[in-house]
């Protein structure tokens, strides 16, 4: 009887553990999808930043919203910088271990270590990106509450157009110098 109970409990624990591992693996392999979602969120918010920037002077809640957005933006920048740095470090380590035949043999034994590091790196980054996306989702919901005007493109003031066409009759002066130079060139 005790064996049956222990067996059932172990099966449930194994099932829970398997589900947890599946969630973690899905998280690790979904990093690129999370990065795309992050990009999409930032692009959606970017469309209203001009209006929000103008309204922050008069509305304190818009200023708070922009501060939250700024904090999340810094977090996202830090995570993506860390991601790129770690990827470069892994590439450098692989290149260093692949230089000689002896090191190639060693790298065969160390490759599981590199794979483990890569998985840990992906997991940490994926968790942080997921948290940032959740924060951005909240910020996007707040964005809808403020009814910002969407601006797709900001028109830059155009300068005065100029051409290189010069009316020679309106140019005055330097005739003597021009004549002197022409004489020197001819001689």
Give an overview in words.
It comes from Dipteronia sinensis. The protein is mostly helical. The chain has helices at 2-29, 31-46, 49-55, 60-97, 101-146, 175-186. The model has no long low-confidence stretch (mean pLDDT 75).
Indicate the topology:
Blueprint lengths: L1 H28 L1 H16 L2 H7 L4 H38 L3 H46 L28 H12 L1
Helix pairs in contact: 1-5, 2-5, 4-5
What are the key terms here?
79% helix; 0% strand; 6 helices; 187 residues
Could you write a compact summary of the structure shown?
It comes from Dipteronia sinensis. The protein is mostly helical. The protein is built from 6 helices and no strands.
Distance between the termini: 121 Å
Number of discrete helical segments: 6
Structural class: mainly alpha
| Strand composition percent | under 5%
The residue fraction in helices comes out at: over 70%
Number of DSSP-assigned strands: 0
- Radius of gyration from the CA trace? 32 Å
Mean pLDDT: 75
Q: What is the assembly state of the chains in this entry?
A: single chain
Overall 3D form: elongated
Largest sheet: none
Would you list the SSEs in sequence order as H and E? HHHHHH
**pLDDT < 50 runs, ≥5 residues:** none
GO molecular function, one term: nucleotide binding
Protein name: Disease resistance N-terminal domain-containing protein
Keywords: Nucleotide-binding, Plant defense, Repeat
Domain Disease resistance N-terminal: 5-97
